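Duplicate of #3305? Posting structure anyway:
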């Protein structure tokens, strides 16, 4: 190696006590640092602000990690140390880090689902578009039926969902909206049960719309003061209501807890840090019960009422621990799971997720959440149907590349609609109607998997 030349005026200053240190540029992103000091001895090399980069010992062929502005090196026995110091990268906030992937892989994106879909989880009262537009979306995507639930905290009732459903009988299916706070009043749960019976009779409710318990009880809206007397799922005051739901064979969609990351410290070790800060509904107020206790209470209710079916929303908040979710399904036979816009976490673990869905296909139903547009549905179909590698999800919702699960047809049929049809008679009717329509119009509707039903997609 040639002797180092004079250092440029703007070259950073490296220092080591008791050593002569010389620095010169070495390409656009590095400096060659020569440290001449006591032979065979360690020295602490310092450079203010030097961090987030590796230092390479060119003599010993080792990489050394900087602390905050310093690193311990060893001067060789017979010569000066030669070190390659790479220029520290610019400080980039984790909120601004949005790299453009260089990886390009072949892929196809489904234009419509391979088999008819029953979406059990939607909130179409939030959609300002007319029902006719929703029906066009459903027809394009092969969505046979959507169960829509209103929000009590928005002042909505079961009648609001029924009003939409009456405009599309058999395609939009209404869910019952429950005022859970009634259970605090004398005889309140009995009145809730009577209201549920009326919802079935007058509004043809097919299930009980999404209820929440995120650690503060079923009537907590997630904002404002924490209830002094939490009304948890297994509170005996709710027993008359669960009895009525069991007798009516009305499943309930239960959102128990949030994703696991919401229960971890919001620091540099949290894999969902950016998403948690950007989604205020994920913020956990101080106190409240933990993830496991919320689920234990839910499972106690299901053991007390074996005729009651609960559909755990959003992969039960446990998509990162599918083995734990499988154990819950083994323990509690009247527990079902819906996908609920959690395709991103499935796409991180395609082989494990595919095995899980294959094993539990008769306990998993399709759900979207809120008001899904065409591209969101298609993204979910791509995750479930394709075997595409390392593609990006929309809106930066995944910090990880997504991989298609490549589910076989029998699993897709079950998850898309057949399992829902077993617990929702209205869903069975919707699938039967879709099959009849498909049979009469098979020449006009491209079959999924054909060139007309998929489009090219970049990874």
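Output from current build:
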């Amino acid at each position: 190696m040639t002797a180092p030349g004079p250092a440029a005026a703007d070259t950073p200053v490296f220092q080591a006590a008791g050593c002569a240190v010389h620095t010169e540029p070495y390409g656009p992103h590095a400096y060659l640092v020569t440290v001449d000091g006591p032979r065979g001895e360690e020295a602490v090399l310092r450079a203010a602000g030097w961090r987030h980069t590796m230092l390479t010992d060119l003599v010993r062929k080792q990489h050394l990690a900087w602390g905050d502005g310093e690193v311990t090196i060893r001067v060789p026995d017979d010569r000066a140390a030669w070190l390659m110091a790479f220029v520290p990268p610019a400080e980039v906030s984790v909120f601004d880090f949005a790299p453009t992937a260089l990886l390009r892989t072949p892929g196809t994106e489904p234009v419509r689902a391979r088999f008819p879909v029953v979406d059990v989880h939607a909130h179409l009262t939030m959609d300002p578009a007319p029902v006719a537009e929703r029906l066009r979306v459903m027809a394009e995507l092969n969505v046979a039926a959507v169960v829509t639930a209103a929000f009590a905290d928005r002042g909505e009732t079961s009648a609001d969902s029924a009003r939409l459903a009456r405009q599309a009988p058999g395609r939009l299916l209404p869910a019952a909206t429950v005022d859970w706070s009634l259970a605090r009043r004398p005889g309140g749960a009995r009145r809730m049960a009577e209201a549920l019976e009326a919802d079935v009779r007058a509004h043809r409710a097919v299930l009980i719309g999404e209820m929440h318990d995120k650690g503060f009880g079923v009537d907590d809206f997630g904002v404002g003061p924490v209830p002094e007397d939490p009304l948890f799922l297994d509170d005996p005051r709710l027993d008359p209501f669960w009895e009525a739901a069991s007798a009516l064979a009305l499943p309930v969609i239960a959102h128990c807890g949030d994703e696991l990351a919401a229960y971890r410290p919001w620091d540099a070790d949290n894999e969902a840090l950016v998403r948690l800060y950007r989604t205020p509904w994920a913020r956990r107020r101080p106190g409240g019960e933990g993830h496991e206790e919320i689920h234990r209470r839910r499972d106690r209710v299901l053991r007390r009422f074996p005729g009651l079916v609960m559909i755990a929303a959003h992969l039960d908040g446990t998509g990162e621990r599918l083995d734990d979710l499988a154990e819950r399904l083994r323990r509690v036979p009247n527990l079902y799971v819906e996908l609920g816009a959690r395709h991103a976490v499935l796409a991180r673990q395609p082989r494990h997720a595919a095995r899980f869905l294959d094993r539990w296909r008769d306990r998993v139903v399709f759900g979207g959440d809120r008001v899904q547009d065409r591209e969101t549905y298609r993204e979910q179909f791509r995750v479930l149907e394709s075997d595409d590698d390392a593609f990006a999800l929309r809106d930066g919702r995944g910090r990880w590349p997504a991989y298609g699960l490549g589910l076989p047809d029998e699993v897709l049929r079950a998850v898309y609609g057949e399992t829902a049809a077993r617990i929702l008679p209205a869903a069975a009717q919707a699938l039967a109607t879709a099959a009849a329509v498909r049979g009469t119009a098979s020449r006009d509707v491209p079959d999924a998997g054909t060139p007309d039903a998929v489009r090219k997609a970049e990874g």
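Confirmed duplicate; merging threads. The domain at 15-86 is CATH 2.60.40.1180 (Immunoglobulin-like). Residues 1-9, 443-452 have pLDDT under 50 and may be disordered.
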